[in-house]
Amino acid sequence: MKACIVAVGTEMLTPLRVDTNSLFITERLNEIGIDVRLKLIVGDDVEELAELLRAALAWADVIVMTGGLGPTEDDITRAGVARVLELPLAVDESIVDRIRERFMRRGLTMPEINRRQAMVPRGATVLPNPNGTAPGLWMEQGGTAIVLLPGPPREMKPMFDIVVRERLAARTKGAGLFRRVLRITGRTESDVDAHAQPIYGKWTSQAVPITTTILAVLGQIELHVTAHAPCRAEADAALDRAVAELRDGLGDSLYSVDGRPLEAVVGDLLRSNGLTLAVAESCTGGLLASRLTDVPGSSDYLDRGVVCYSNRAKIESLGLAERLIEEHGAVSEPVARAMAEAIRAQANVDVGVGITGIAGPGGGTLQKPVGTVAIAVVGHGEARVRTFQFIGGRDQVKFQATQAALNMLRLMLKSQSGR
Amino acid sequence: MKACIVAVGTEMLTPLRVDTNSLFITERLNEIGIDVRLKLIVGDDVEELAELLRAALAWADVIVMTGGLGPTEDDITRAGVARVLELPLAVDESIVDRIRERFMRRGLTMPEINRRQAMVPRGATVLPNPNGTAPGLWMEQGGTAIVLLPGPPREMKPMFDIVVRERLAARTKGAGLFRRVLRITGRTESDVDAHAQPIYGKWTSQAVPITTTILAVLGQIELHVTAHAPCRAEADAALDRAVAELRDGLGDSLYSVDGRPLEAVVGDLLRSNGLTLAVAESCTGGLLASRLTDVPGSSDYLDRGVVCYSNRAKIESLGLAERLIEEHGAVSEPVARAMAEAIRAQANVDVGVGITGIAGPGGGTLQKPVGTVAIAVVGHGEARVRTFQFIGGRDQVKFQATQAALNMLRLMLKSQSGR
Q: Which of B205, B227, B256 is the last residue of a domain?
């Protein structure tokens, strides 16, 4: 089955906003075997909307529309659909009552303008909206289902899941698309593909076909592994096998097969091994600590962090020897290691991390250009120290440096815990 | 003039990717008086693309397409356009030479498949691509300009700015749209609108009409102020006046009229007053230091930060009295103030900031629910201490707390420097 998703709203035709509702809707449609073939983003113009709808009706089995169901003149979705389907619009008083009640519960009087939200094309099914005033609408014409959903995600999403999903699923017989996102770090895209392609290349023609897309994002490579299967259980079985094969092929560089970010993977390793952590950062400026503390419960293992942005801070808060910095430079492996060892001793924790580098745009030299970052991880009598050369702007260097530090930490924890 | 933007690529019809090229293109088109009326996102299917293009040709003055210009079978933009315009496609050997040269410069041989990128519909103008192999193409039919640009932003953007912009500008006579983004924090959306609406409400009918949109985003309110003017100079004059009026009406809560984020505004205030800063964070976990160090040159004023995630860390690294924490609780104004004072003294800087709170999801109590955050800013004999109650998930509480801390810091610096 083929779907068209329509986002209605002039704000999405400015340079300031994109439509993101369609990502959620696409995922849900894919799961019940509906393929999204077109996305339209249109403004608040009845004529234009009507014309595009007419074209989509000619080929789409499902048209899902979001937005334009508000109470103002700008909200033209109902009118556009009614025009194309040649149905009269009339106020449904039971909807007016529900909207009025909603206002009353908040001690407010319903403005007259909100009666517009109770306009329904004749024959349409009204979809209740527990989180807002605008109900959704379901219509059919010539075998095409037309679904109107409100724009705000907290109204649209539950309406889709509670009402729309089942109604659409009843119409489909095809296989659904079910995805896993695998995350890899510390390797290039072409290196990952060289190892992964011989594995995933065989899957396209099996009973439950699986397609794989490789994508380079900052500091990591993603593999999107998609199974075509009649139901989630069959997809899961096939995806489990696929993920196991990729895990064998990619080894240690594959850090997540369930969407967990690297900081959560590291956190779980620390917790399950009963270890505590402290970090000393220079060029990453607190981003490593901030990423670690994005994970709920991170206070179980993260004791503290210091951000030593000046050399004086490195000397005073970590007790680094001035001579060490003079001799090797602030951005050097000996300084990174001394930072890691100092914070570990100071905090009396199991593992310490030290990062020092040049995030740019200034501060680079011929020997140590912008993007040079030295990272040390110390713990349990082991010290791992490496120097990286990252490319990109300041934010990108900061992020890649924290990603590299988390990965060094992950690999050390894994090897020490023998897993 | 009316434009349609078409993004070609099946990956943008999955739940994992949105089209963002259109934001850049919309901004540029708006500036030269071209209105974007429709965005289409289509997959790698020649038939479907051709059908949609035919429909857009009927009304659009400009069709800008991105993506689908690669060398593989999936790259169908050239073929789709040639079909609709009924033009034969032929290989342009001068393009092949350029692509081959590009490969040679990297010591590589051009794969035969790349000849596809040299296919040109008869009569099309070839737009050079300094950053990639796929050239752009410019065609015209019945008064509509059709522009094909590569998908990767680093190829698409310079091609648009260097070649396409001027060609399109020559065709338009209309007024352009020029925007400013104003940022406000510490007030609610409705409060901002109550003060701003009486000001911007008058602007829609003036010689250079200005429209204003208000938008609530996490930790701040944005006002998008858009002038309709024949050129940038006229727009700037009108926008300067508009911004000055809004500045009077909104007062101190308006922190940026030029897109600068709050951390950059605070950084500029610190630098221009020759002040230095150190921060002590608990629940924000390093995010405040990380945001401050996102700004190039922040080492001029940020000396250091500490992240005291455990009570032990608060006592050991900041020298806080255990009794103070026992008496008031770790999340309390006296502790926030003691943290700010301790880091200021320890680092021997002008200003210290302390943040302590409950980011959630665990750790809340009846008296101090999740989202409770105490913040202190101390410097120059002045101490400002406040307790906030933020709503939202862990990330949102963290961000809002840093936003509130930066704003308290901004307001103190402003009042102390008498501006």
A: B256
Q: Last residue of some domain: B114, B146, B169?
A: B169
Token pair recorded at residue B167: 């060609």
Q: Domain check: are B142 and B46 in the same one?
A: yes
Chain B residues whose beta carbon lies within 8 Å of the beta carbon of residue A13: 26, 36-39
Residue A73 CA, distance from chain mean position:
34
- Do B128 and B80 belong to one domain? yes
Q: Is the predicted ipTM greater than 0.90, yes or no?
A: no
| CATH code where residue A133 lies | 3.40.980.10
CATH of the domain at A252: 3.30.70.2860
Of A41, A289, A360, the CB nearest to B307: A289
The pTM for the full model equals 0.88
Query: Which A-chain residues 33-62 have CB contacts (< 8 A) with chain B?
Result: 36-43, 45, 48, 51-52, 55
Q: Exposure string (b/e) for A389-417, b if CB count within 10 Å is 16 or more?
A: ebebebebbbbbbbbbbbbbbbbbbbebe
Domain region containing A86: 2-169
> How many residues can be counted in chain A?
419
Q: Tell me how far apart the alpha carbons of residues B262 and B283 are, in angstroms, rounded to a whole number.
A: 20
Which of A8, A35, A41, A399 would best serve as a mutation to test chain B binding (most B beta carbons within 10 A)? A41
Contact A284/B at CB under 8 A: yes
Task: Please list every residue in chain B whose beta carbon sits closer than 8 Å to the beta carbon of residue A12.
Answer: 39
- Computed on alpha carbons and rounded to an integer, the radius of gyration of chain B in Å comes to 28
Q: Do B220 and B204 share a domain, yes or no?
A: yes
The structural domain count of chain A equals: 3
Residue of B30, B294, B304 with shortest CB distance to A15: B30
What is residue A135's DSSP assignment? P
Are residue B280 and residue B309 in the same domain, yes or no? yes
Task: Establish if A20 touches chain B: CB-CB under 8 angstroms.
Answer: yes
* Chain B residues close to A286, C-beta within 8 Å: 281, 286-290, 292-293, 305, 307
Across B140-162, b (16+ Cβ under 10 Å) vs e yields eeeebbbbbbbbbeebbbebbee
pLDDT (tens place) for every residue of chain A, 419 residues total: 999 999 999 889 999 889 999 999 999 999 999 999 999 999 988 988 999 999 899 999 999 999 999 888 888 999 999 999 999 999 999 999 999 998 899 888 898 889 999 999 999 999 999 888 899 999 999 999 999 999 999 899 999 999 999 999 998 877 889 999 999 999 888 889 899 999 999 998 899 999 998 888 889 999 999 999 988 899 999 999 999 999 999 999 999 998 899 999 999 999 999 999 999 999 999 999 999 999 999 999 999 999 999 999 999 999 999 999 999 999 999 999 999 999 999 999 999 999 999 999 999 999 999 999 999 999 988 999 999 999 888 999 999 999 999 999 999 999 988 64
Neighbours of B190 (CB within 10 A): 11
> Is there a single domain that holds both residue A189 and residue A156?
no
Mark whether A6 and A155 lie in a shared domain.
yes
Cβ neighbours of residue B311 closer than 8 Å, sequence gap 6 or more: B325, B330
